Please model this.
Amino acid sequence: MKHRWLTLRRRLLRNRHFEAPFDTLLREDIPSPRTSFMDAEIVSLDIETTALDASRAEMLSVGWVLIRKGMVEMSTADSCVVRPSGDVGGSASVHGLTDTMVESGDDWKLVLGEIIEVLAGRVLLVHHAGLDKALLDRLCRRVYGQPLLVPVIDTLALEHRRLQGRHHIDEQQSLRLADLRQRYSLPRYDAHDCLVDAIATAELLIAMVAHNGGADRARLSSNSTSSAEITVAETSMPFALTSELTAS
Amino acid sequence: MKEIPEVARFLRGLPGFNYLDDALIEACARAIRIAYYRKGENILTIGEDNGQLHIVRSGAVELLNSDAELITRVAESDCFGLPSLMNDAPVRNNSAAIEDSLVYQLDRETFSAARRASSDFDTWFIRALSERLLTLPAAPALRGASGVTAGSIVGRAPVMIDSTASVRAAATRMVDERVSSMLIMDETGVCGIVTDRDIRSRVVATGLSTGRPVAEIMTPSPITLDSQAHAYEAALLMMQHQIHHLPITSGRDLIGMVSRSDFMRLETEHPLYLVGDIGKQSTAEGVSGACARLPGLIVGQIDSDAGGEQLGKFITTITDTVTRQLLRIAETKLGPPPCGYAWMALGSQGRFEQSARSDQDNALVLANEAQAKDDAYFLAMAEIVNDGLDACGFAYCPGEVMASNSKWRQPLRQWEQYFHKWITVPEEKALMHANIFFDLRCVSGDAGLVDELRSGIRETARQNEIFLALMAKNAMDYQPPLGFFRQFVLEKSGEHKDMLDLKRHGIMPIVEIARIRSLSAGELRVSTRSRLLAAAGAGEITGGDASNLIDALDFVEKLRVEHQGRQLSAGQNPDNYIAPADLSPLVRQNLKAAFSQIRVSQSALLNRFHLA
Model:
């Protein structure tokens, strides 16, 4: 249902004129829910922000990498440092970004344009998509007057739903990226960097797919019946992988 | 270019990759594709193409050969897929994740670019490849010989020429010596190397005069390797420098050349390399030395499920090659033959049906103009070949059907008389020993002599019913070992008590039937199978009989092949005896069916000549 809604909204907007990358984003068809995992192009993205509140957070740096044919392709990996409008403050040290690095960064509108360009015709993947997606929606509204109209996969939400489906849900069980990776026997990454996190999230997704029926059987699908756990802005589309993930 | 943090850091810490500078590491990191395999999931399958280096980032992977034997386990930071990637060959082992595994894949192009850019990286992977090949069961020679030195794989003595010699003189030498490369010497020693390729590209293609000194087209100061270095060092140098020939030295002396095929021989143990190898030998000792690999090759053929027909052709091809090379050696030693001659293979070699334990049967046909004094030459020649064949494992014929026996070293005219007598005034006893002469085939020399002999036989045999009938009667000496109630009749005593002689009771009866039937049809094909088909084509037997006998022959030969394969693998001398008690009930039943078919065909043969 929500996929249809997303498609409809995008189609309506095609009659209006937007600036280049956003215009392309609307014109490129989004993958249908029946698209198999192997055929979908998925952009794993991570944003380092100045705050945890989407309504006032700003981007500090963004990293992304693509999953194509079920594999994480390093040739598509990229990252940008954003020159913030205000003071970086304390969060810069958390992210290991020095003032000089931040000063040499790009204008946030430029970076947003790049993100939109990469997302055209693809699916967005974020671990714990809420904050990042809300932030991107807000920035898109500021520039284009519309939220970021792309399908989203959230590895945290997928794992949460999988555990619920198994009645395994334990409030103590951590859904943090590092802990989930450990659960799927993925190596520990020490670097704290948006690109490393994007790669880490991409690896987590292909591991989850392998453990839930395999890449050949997995499909994208909007799952309106159990989307409750995906706490994101009202415009975001909770895309998930099919029953293999939920039913097992 | 922006650094990819975790991936580049991991690659930098990998053995081999530690030789790459930052730019190359980054280029490799950028080319990586990351795959995830669940425990138990297959990664590479035997026979498929593989264009990547697979690096285990986390987890563990197992490599299994086609018999599901464990080749090796690879864990974090180990690579696999090297042989298929580096040799551009199909995947040789199945690989499967034995733990949940994250695997980096590096494409061939980037990997090759890194090898070109860093010779240390290149060397490391060539070594890794060699070590991986050493663990492959498919390469017993290399595996069993981790101490193989470069000196030990030298194909032949080096061919050299002075640097002032002309290109033409060098090319002529190369043709005469049958080599594709040659070393160029000056007063200081080896100063260059010239290969076929150099003559093509630097002389023929450019129109250079062949009268120019060879020094002008040689590659100066060739790379050499000490004979004590490991054989893979030779492969390594050749791969690194993209060269096909490598001079091997011992101190200041030149030992010889190693070519890529010398190394390939070690790696692949392909029968074709043995043929090529025999052809390069200049002494009988060299030929028998090369043939030391034959039992291993036979086992290899049997392991790859060769049937009796295929194996027979293979062993016969080797025997023919050995014979021709020994004749060449004899002619080099004795000078040109005083008259024309043909070296004939008889019996199983003549029929392309040799087994792992076949003796030699051969003869010499001399041209009619041969004089009595010429015989000394041919005796010397026959002895070189007969002795050489024996040294190669093709034992002397107990019945002395060999060219060194003066009776079987005669001018064409005498041979025609032999056959004429056998056919027109046949004696049962004489014929019994003569039947293998009807399996004659020219191996070397003037084939026209043998053709002439054969056409005479074909004409006279068909018209002589008595001869054919006596042959048929003799053929009954080889009875299938089935008792009245279809139980096996086994050897009563001796070394092979309670065993069956597959050759005597299963193969020879069919060989005899086929020979008589094809002679009767006026055909003189060489192999048993083609004789049966030709006889059926001529209406001598029915098509059904022919195919039933061929099936029976296939079955019995296959049993023998497997039996001899087991004996060879166990280091025993192969024989023709099997114990029916060791066979499965199904095989026993099939063997009985084959014997029954032989009996039916023998009865038909007797009826054909009114002998029943």
Remarks:
- Residues 2-247 of chain A form a domain with the Nucleotidyltransferase; domain 5 fold (CATH 3.30.420.10).
- Confidence is low (pLDDT under 50) at residues 222-248 of chain A.
- Chain A touches chain B through 27 residues (CB under 8 Å).
- The two ends of chain A are 23 Å apart (CA to CA).
